[in-house]
Amino acid sequence: MKSLTSKVLRHLILWATRHYSNLNHQGQLPGWNASLPFEPGVTTVPYAGRVFQSDEVEAAVASTLDFWLTLGVEGEAFENEFEAFLGVKRTLITNSGSSANLLAISGLTSIKIPAAKRLRSGDEVITCAAGFPTTVAPILQNGLVPVFVDNNPFTGNIDIRGLEEAYSPGKTKAVMVAHALGNPFDLGEILTFCRKYDLWLIEDNCDALGCRYHLPDSHPLRAEGFPSSAYTGTWGDLSTQSFYPPHHLTMGEGGAVNIIRDMRLKVVVESFRDWGRDCWCASGKDNTCAKRFDWKLGELPEGYDHKYIYKHLGYNLKPLDPQAAIGREQLKRMPRFIEARKQNWEKLRRGLKGLERFFDFSLPTHAKSWSENGFEWDESGCRTDCSWFGFMMMVKPEAPFKRRDFAKYLDEKKIGNRMLFGGNLVRQPVFVDLRKENPNAFRVIGDLKGADRLMNEAIFVGVYPGLSDQMIDYMVDSIRKYVKQW
Ligand SMILES: Cc1ncc(COP(=O)(O)O)c(C=O)c1O
Fold first, then answer.
1. Domain count, the chain
2. Range(s) of the domain holding residue 321
3. Cβ(135) to ligand 1 under 6 A?
4. Of the candidates 56, 57, 50, 155, which has an alpha carbon nearest to the alpha carbon of residue 465?
5. Parallel/antiparallel/unpaired status of strands 367-371 and 417-418
6. Distance separating alpha carbons of residues 167 and 463, to the nearest angstrom
7. How confident is the model at residue 33 (pLDDT cuts 50, 70, 90)?
């Protein structure tokens, strides 16, 4: 029981925190607060950033005052709220999206997974060449072999035409790919492929929280029980999130593994996250299994403390409880965040209409073209609804300027911009060295021309909810001025 003095002090501290935040943090949210001045060419237009208010700061301080620190009530509440939001069986919070990816792959190597399905050293995992390195690194870190399929340069996603060639009977065990920059990959085709060969599907949903995928009623996956519409990150076996600041929801550092259907995967992923232990007690709790001193496992003596019995070579990849407290406040903002990202993308696309001579603009998966009336969709009947991470365009090879010149210009104009992360990862020093050391470390399907295009030509600017209309107009004007020279 807290004393009255403690209660009053806590109240005062939180009251002061809220006021402090209201006074000091608004300046970091130029687009969130329309009354703040925007000076074109002087004020930076970030490509992404934290969007928060005093609620998040108060939540962080309140949780810190409790000083439980390690995962506790806030972590548990966040996990419950996040899994309800997304529509998955279970969410396990982690300290980063990279850790989440590591855990998703590691979990599938568990001795608890039936032998035929277990990922074992030398097994292959299909992925795509262009993207973020830690979608792929855990495959190699677990002694597995990534098989790189090309990307579709217009969507940024895996080019499904490479899947059949990538499949190797008896060796391929899983597909692990990201929904690129808030654009769902072709779930209809990839899920069908995974089911045909009984492969795991891990969706790296780190850049795509809030995206939806739609299947037509006539799609065979519908007859297998898949929904007509659901968020990405809910279709495969496992999915992952990042809560690093540029992402749709932030807690500073952070991430999550989503257990989509099969709760047996929860036990193994959680074990790898929590030191590899067999025990599943939450931190600070004992004897959840009601037989803490009654287990007989391995060659340990009967009754050895279950808390210290290890089933896996695990890690400790948990975040802190105050991070989860921040995440809970952010989660409440998700509908608004998702809508803002969509609207900002649309504003940029409309503003840059007519510049197709210079740029190939990104398209949602299954869209054939964009016009002010909407997208024209392909004949598959599948649809995507993008919760964009960025606004991507490729500088056409025949354009009178190169992507590098354009990036430098945007920098001069203080317009934040990024390339598609690692570009074609196979061209990165780490993979070049790896192949020199061991030519069989990974396999490549085809010539990776699409991934090379992304590496050479792609650039993206921001759509994050912190952008104001003025900033978007400024981006559009600046880009238009740049190409006008030609
Ligand atoms: C697709 C993708 N996966 C994984 C990650 C890693 O997330 P984190 O930075 O939280 O480790 C990122 C990072 O931005 C990403 O873009």
1. 1
2. 73-329
3. yes
4. 50
5. unpaired
6. 36
7. low
